[in-house]
Amino acid sequence: MERARQALKWNQRAEFTKTLLIIALIVGMTLGGYGLFTVSMGTSNPLVVVESESMLPTLEVGHLLVLQARAPEQIQVGNIIVFNAAYHTKPIVHRIVEIQNVTGELHYYTLGDNNDLRDPGYRLHEDIIGVVVLAVPYVGHVTLFLHEPYGFAIVAVLFLALLILPEFFMKDEEDDVDTEIDEQNTTEQENANA
Questions:
Q1: Can you tell me the distance from the alpha carbon of 38 to that of 32, in angstroms, rounded to the nearest whole number?
Q2: CB of 130 within 8 A of CB of 69?
Q3: Mean pLDDT lowest for which of 9-18, 87-96, 127-136?
Q4: Whole-angstrom Cα distance, residue 10 to residue 66?
Protein backbone atom coordinates (compact mmCIF):
# COMPACT_ATOMS: atom_id res chain seq x y z
CA MET A 1 0.00 0.00 0.00
CA GLU A 2 2.86 2.34 0.84
CA ARG A 3 4.41 1.70 -2.58
CA ALA A 4 1.15 2.72 -4.24
CA ARG A 5 1.05 5.93 -2.18
CA GLN A 6 4.63 6.73 -3.15
CA ALA A 7 4.06 5.92 -6.83
CA LEU A 8 0.97 8.14 -6.90
CA LYS A 9 2.70 10.80 -4.77
CA TRP A 10 -0.47 10.63 -2.68
CA ASN A 11 0.81 12.64 0.28
CA GLN A 12 1.89 15.48 -2.01
CA ARG A 13 -1.51 15.91 -3.67
CA ALA A 14 -4.14 18.42 -2.60
CA GLU A 15 -7.24 17.06 -0.84
CA PHE A 16 -9.38 18.29 -3.74
CA THR A 17 -7.36 16.15 -6.17
CA LYS A 18 -7.51 13.13 -3.86
CA THR A 19 -11.27 13.45 -3.50
CA LEU A 20 -11.70 13.80 -7.27
CA LEU A 21 -9.59 10.69 -7.86
CA ILE A 22 -11.60 8.65 -5.36
CA ILE A 23 -14.91 9.80 -6.87
CA ALA A 24 -13.62 8.94 -10.37
CA LEU A 25 -12.57 5.50 -9.13
CA ILE A 26 -15.97 4.86 -7.52
CA VAL A 27 -17.86 6.05 -10.62
CA GLY A 28 -15.66 3.92 -12.90
CA MET A 29 -16.13 0.81 -10.79
CA THR A 30 -19.89 1.40 -10.57
CA LEU A 31 -20.29 1.84 -14.32
CA GLY A 32 -18.06 -1.15 -15.03
CA GLY A 33 -20.00 -3.29 -12.57
CA TYR A 34 -23.30 -2.18 -14.06
CA GLY A 35 -21.99 -3.01 -17.54
CA LEU A 36 -21.04 -6.53 -16.45
CA PHE A 37 -24.42 -6.91 -14.71
CA THR A 38 -26.19 -5.79 -17.90
CA VAL A 39 -24.35 -8.38 -19.97
CA SER A 40 -24.93 -11.18 -17.44
CA MET A 41 -28.69 -10.48 -17.23
CA GLY A 42 -29.00 -10.30 -21.03
CA THR A 43 -30.97 -7.05 -21.09
CA SER A 44 -30.00 -3.44 -21.68
CA ASN A 45 -31.93 -2.35 -18.60
CA PRO A 46 -31.60 -4.93 -15.79
CA LEU A 47 -32.75 -2.57 -13.02
CA VAL A 48 -36.15 -0.87 -12.93
CA VAL A 49 -38.00 0.98 -10.19
CA VAL A 50 -41.74 0.57 -9.65
CA GLU A 51 -43.33 3.99 -10.08
CA SER A 52 -47.06 3.22 -9.88
CA GLU A 53 -49.48 1.30 -7.69
CA SER A 54 -50.76 -0.94 -10.50
CA MET A 55 -49.03 -4.02 -9.05
CA LEU A 56 -50.18 -3.67 -5.43
CA PRO A 57 -50.02 -5.66 -3.18
CA THR A 58 -47.25 -7.66 -4.91
CA LEU A 59 -45.03 -4.69 -5.76
CA GLU A 60 -45.14 -1.28 -4.13
CA VAL A 61 -43.89 2.06 -5.38
CA GLY A 62 -40.15 2.17 -4.70
CA HIS A 63 -39.41 -1.52 -5.23
CA LEU A 64 -36.19 -2.03 -7.18
CA LEU A 65 -36.70 -4.80 -9.73
CA VAL A 66 -33.95 -6.98 -11.15
CA LEU A 67 -34.77 -8.15 -14.68
CA GLN A 68 -33.47 -11.00 -16.79
CA ALA A 69 -33.96 -11.59 -20.50
CA ARG A 70 -35.73 -14.83 -21.37
CA ALA A 71 -36.40 -16.69 -24.59
CA PRO A 72 -40.03 -16.46 -25.75
CA GLU A 73 -40.82 -20.05 -24.80
CA GLN A 74 -39.39 -19.53 -21.27
CA ILE A 75 -41.85 -16.73 -20.46
CA GLN A 76 -44.93 -18.12 -18.73
CA VAL A 77 -48.35 -17.05 -17.52
CA GLY A 78 -47.89 -15.56 -14.04
CA ASN A 79 -44.47 -14.04 -14.76
CA ILE A 80 -44.13 -10.36 -13.96
CA ILE A 81 -42.54 -8.60 -16.89
CA VAL A 82 -41.37 -5.10 -17.74
CA PHE A 83 -42.28 -4.01 -21.24
CA ASN A 84 -42.52 -1.03 -23.55
CA ALA A 85 -45.91 -0.03 -24.90
CA ALA A 86 -46.85 2.58 -27.48
CA TYR A 87 -49.54 3.97 -25.17
CA HIS A 88 -47.11 4.80 -22.33
CA THR A 89 -43.88 6.82 -22.21
CA LYS A 90 -42.15 4.69 -19.54
CA PRO A 91 -41.72 0.92 -19.24
CA ILE A 92 -44.67 -0.85 -17.61
CA VAL A 93 -44.47 -3.53 -14.89
CA HIS A 94 -47.38 -6.00 -15.16
CA ARG A 95 -48.13 -9.71 -14.90
CA ILE A 96 -48.71 -12.01 -17.89
CA VAL A 97 -52.26 -13.39 -17.67
CA GLU A 98 -52.51 -15.13 -21.04
CA ILE A 99 -50.27 -16.28 -23.87
CA GLN A 100 -51.58 -17.05 -27.36
CA ASN A 101 -49.63 -18.65 -30.18
CA VAL A 102 -50.79 -16.93 -33.36
CA THR A 103 -49.20 -18.52 -36.45
CA GLY A 104 -45.98 -19.23 -34.54
CA GLU A 105 -45.79 -15.78 -32.92
CA LEU A 106 -46.41 -15.56 -29.17
CA HIS A 107 -48.76 -12.82 -27.96
CA TYR A 108 -48.48 -11.95 -24.27
CA TYR A 109 -51.51 -10.37 -22.57
CA THR A 110 -50.83 -8.45 -19.38
CA LEU A 111 -52.66 -7.02 -16.38
CA GLY A 112 -51.60 -5.08 -13.32
CA ASP A 113 -52.43 -6.96 -10.09
CA ASN A 114 -54.26 -3.85 -8.84
CA ASN A 115 -56.12 -3.21 -12.14
CA ASP A 116 -59.55 -4.47 -13.18
CA LEU A 117 -58.95 -4.49 -16.95
CA ARG A 118 -56.24 -6.08 -19.05
CA ASP A 119 -53.79 -3.81 -20.81
CA PRO A 120 -54.83 -2.81 -24.34
CA GLY A 121 -53.59 -5.16 -27.04
CA TYR A 122 -50.81 -7.67 -26.55
CA ARG A 123 -47.04 -7.68 -26.15
CA LEU A 124 -44.58 -9.30 -28.50
CA HIS A 125 -41.26 -10.69 -27.31
CA GLU A 126 -39.52 -7.60 -28.74
CA ASP A 127 -41.57 -5.38 -26.40
CA ILE A 128 -40.42 -7.21 -23.28
CA ILE A 129 -37.41 -5.68 -21.52
CA GLY A 130 -37.14 -8.54 -19.05
CA VAL A 131 -38.78 -10.85 -16.55
CA VAL A 132 -38.67 -9.83 -12.88
CA VAL A 133 -36.38 -12.23 -10.99
CA LEU A 134 -35.95 -10.20 -7.79
CA ALA A 135 -37.79 -7.33 -6.10
CA VAL A 136 -36.02 -5.32 -3.40
CA PRO A 137 -38.35 -3.12 -1.34
CA TYR A 138 -37.64 0.58 -0.64
CA VAL A 139 -34.29 0.78 -2.50
CA GLY A 140 -35.90 2.38 -5.55
CA HIS A 141 -36.99 5.40 -3.53
CA VAL A 142 -33.45 6.74 -4.00
CA THR A 143 -33.94 6.76 -7.78
CA LEU A 144 -37.39 8.29 -7.44
CA PHE A 145 -35.89 11.01 -5.23
CA LEU A 146 -33.19 11.75 -7.82
CA HIS A 147 -35.82 12.17 -10.53
CA GLU A 148 -37.38 15.01 -8.56
CA PRO A 149 -35.95 18.45 -9.47
CA TYR A 150 -34.96 19.20 -5.86
CA GLY A 151 -33.53 15.70 -5.38
CA PHE A 152 -30.90 16.09 -8.07
CA ALA A 153 -30.04 19.58 -6.80
CA ILE A 154 -29.51 18.30 -3.25
CA VAL A 155 -27.23 15.50 -4.44
CA ALA A 156 -25.26 17.93 -6.63
CA VAL A 157 -24.72 20.25 -3.65
CA LEU A 158 -23.60 17.30 -1.50
CA PHE A 159 -21.07 16.21 -4.14
CA LEU A 160 -19.70 19.73 -4.41
CA ALA A 161 -19.42 19.87 -0.63
CA LEU A 162 -17.51 16.57 -0.70
CA LEU A 163 -15.09 18.08 -3.17
CA ILE A 164 -14.60 21.47 -1.53
CA LEU A 165 -14.93 21.02 2.25
CA PRO A 166 -12.03 18.56 2.72
CA GLU A 167 -9.70 21.15 1.18
CA PHE A 168 -10.56 23.65 3.91
CA PHE A 169 -10.48 21.20 6.81
CA MET A 170 -7.23 19.56 5.72
CA LYS A 171 -5.67 22.99 5.20
CA ASP A 172 -6.49 23.93 8.82
CA GLU A 173 -4.95 20.69 10.08
CA GLU A 174 -1.83 21.26 7.97
CA ASP A 175 -1.55 24.82 9.31
CA ASP A 176 -1.86 23.49 12.90
CA VAL A 177 0.86 20.91 12.27
CA ASP A 178 3.11 23.55 10.65
CA THR A 179 2.57 25.88 13.64
CA GLU A 180 3.47 23.09 16.10
CA ILE A 181 6.62 22.25 14.13
CA ASP A 182 7.64 25.92 14.03
CA GLU A 183 7.09 26.21 17.80
CA GLN A 184 9.16 23.07 18.43
CA ASN A 185 11.97 24.34 16.21
CA THR A 186 11.96 27.72 17.98
CA THR A 187 12.06 26.02 21.40
CA GLU A 188 14.89 23.74 20.30
CA GLN A 189 16.88 26.70 18.95
CA GLU A 190 16.35 28.67 22.16
CA ASN A 191 17.49 25.68 24.24
CA ALA A 192 20.54 25.21 22.00
CA ASN A 193 21.46 28.91 22.31
CA ALA A 194 21.09 28.89 26.09
A1: 10
A2: yes
A3: 9-18
A4: 39
Q: Binning pLDDT at 50, 70 and 90, where does residue 22 land?
A: confident
Q: Give the mean model confidence (pLDDT) for residues 19-34.
A: 90
- Chain centroid offset of residue 64 CA: 10
Query: What is the Cα–Cα distance from 69 to 167, expressed in whole angstroms?
Result: 46
CA quadruple 16, 22, 25, 26: dihedral sign: negative
- Class level of CATH domain 45-137: mainly beta
Cα–Cα distance for residue pair 136/65, rounded to 1 Å: 6
pLDDT tier, 172 (very low <50, low <70, confident <90, very high otherwise) = low
Within the chain, residue ranges assigned H as helices are 2-8, 15-41, 141-147, 149-193
CA distances from 17 to 8, 10, 26, 51 (A): 12, 9, 14, 38
Confidence of residue 137 (pLDDT cuts 50, 70, 90): very high
What sign for the dihedral angle of Cα 107, 112, 115, 120? negative
Task: Show me where the domains of the chain are located.
Answer: 2-40+145-176, 45-137
